[in-house]
From TrEMBL:
Annotated Pfam families: MauE
TM segment ranges: 7-24, 51-73, 80-100, 120-141, 153-172
Organism: Formosa algae
Name of the protein described by the UniProt record: Membrane protein YphA (DoxX/SURF4 family)/peroxiredoxin
NCBIfam families: BT_3928_fam (NF045576)
Major subcellular site: membrane
Length: 368
């Protein structure tokens, strides 16, 4: 029994640390996922949406610390009870999400590993079993080091998590797992190969046949039946191939400029998913970037999901020398975890990407 508990303890501890650190690397991304859970369509806890970022930081730090505490044997009862309560809550949440198909990706491992809702639920069931084993053998969990050393390690773990969380918030994720990372070509990531697997979709056609409703399933073709058509529903069996970037576009006044801009040389994208929420210091920072980039021959455009009214207001207030284009808010949140943030592209390849706090690090060489 002691050996089984020890193995379970190592597996759970390591998994909690890895999962927590991946999310702590990108707390803003995890906060977006929490907002999705808090929405009226899922848990209907909309009052918590404004606090999603704070909650995300607290949750992931606690997750990492529980993993550390378990491995070093710090406060065994508190740690194991916390693990049990946390996994019970998340098992319920992932089952609810999977059964009702509310959230397609739990965000358990950020953008590093994507799991389907049922895969996530299965993962939580395995963790629940392992934690129950640990719970039943809690008497075997002893501190690895002396009481003082264990306490110091726990404190260092807490301070380290706080520092890392603050660092990525003030800059950008240390490791970028998204298809918009430095070195990625955005246009290439948008292309669907000709031989890529197609989506497998069932069409359920409802007809009134001789006064009785009947459902006929096809793969898309209209069924040949002698009856009155009522409605049609679809069910996705397999999504097929989905391009890494599938929701990004650059539009202005109803015209799509995506391909043209992503094939242009020396482009600076100034991205603010919400101009209303952008900090004044950030807007001043991108104003300076825009001026310098224009002087050095770069094509400068702004990308936002905000409306023309706020665009015109800020353009006049900050004397922006560039125009704003429209893009999907979710896509912009994915591109850069900063509002605003800056990307430098060369024929669609991301050369540099920075938080507005780090605009002084940009290398804007003369290109004309």
């Amino acid at each position: 029994m002691k050996k089984i508990v020890s193995i379970s303890r190592i597996l759970v501890g390591v998994l909690f640390i890895i999962s927590g650190l991946i999310k702590l690397n990108d707390p803003i991304g995890f906060s977006f996922k929490l907002e999705e859970y808090f929405s009226a369509a899922v848990l209907n806890l909309t009052a918590l949406e404004p606090y999603a970022l704070v909650i995300s930081i607290l949750v992931v730090i606690f997750e990492v610390l529980l993993g550390i505490f378990l491995l070093i044997g710090y406060k065994a009862k508190f740690t194991v009870w916390s693990l049990l309560l946390m996994i019970l809550f998340f098992t319920f949440l992932t089952f609810y999400s999977a059964y009702f198909n509310k959230v397609t990706d739990c965000g358990c491992f950020g953008d590093a590993i994507k799991l389907t809702p049922w895969q996530t639920f299965s993962k939580d069931i395995v963790l629940l079993i392992l934690i129950l084993i640990i719970f039943s053998g809690i008497r075997f969990i002893k501190p690895v080091f002396s009481t003082f050393q264990t306490t110091v390690l726990a404190l260092f773990g807490f301070i380290g998590c706080l520092w890392f969380g603050y660092h990525v918030l003030m800059h950008l994720p240390t490791i970028d797992f998204r298809p918009y990372k430095v070195g990625a070509n955005l246009w290439d990531n948008m292309i669907v190969p000709e031989d890529a697997p197609k989506a497998d979709i069932d069409y359920m056609w409802t007809f009134n046949i001789n006064g009785e409703e009947k459902v006929i399933t096809t793969k898309g073709s209209y069924p040949t039946v002698d009856g009155e058509f009522i409605s049609v529903d679809t069910k996705e069996i397999d999504p097929g191939y989905v391009a890494p970037i599938h929701d990004f576009s650059i539009e202005r006044d109803g015209e799509d400029f995506t391909e043209a801009i992503l094939h242009d040389d020396h482009v600076v994208l100034l991205i603010a998913y919400s101009l209303e929420k952008s900090e004044s210091l950030g807007l001043k920072a991108i104003k300076n970037v825009a001026d310098k980039a224009s002087e050095n021959g770069y094509k400068v455009i702004g990308l936002t999901a905000s409306g023309h009214e706020i665009q015109d207001k800020l353009k006049a207030e900050y004397h922006f020398n560039f125009d704003f284009y429209f893009s999907d808010e979710t896509a912009l949140k994915t591109i850069v975890r900063s509002n605003p943030g800056v990307l430098i592209l060369d024929k669609g390849t991301v050369i540099q990407k920075v938080h507005w706090n780090d605009v002084d690090d940009l290398n804007l060489i003369k290109v004309n």
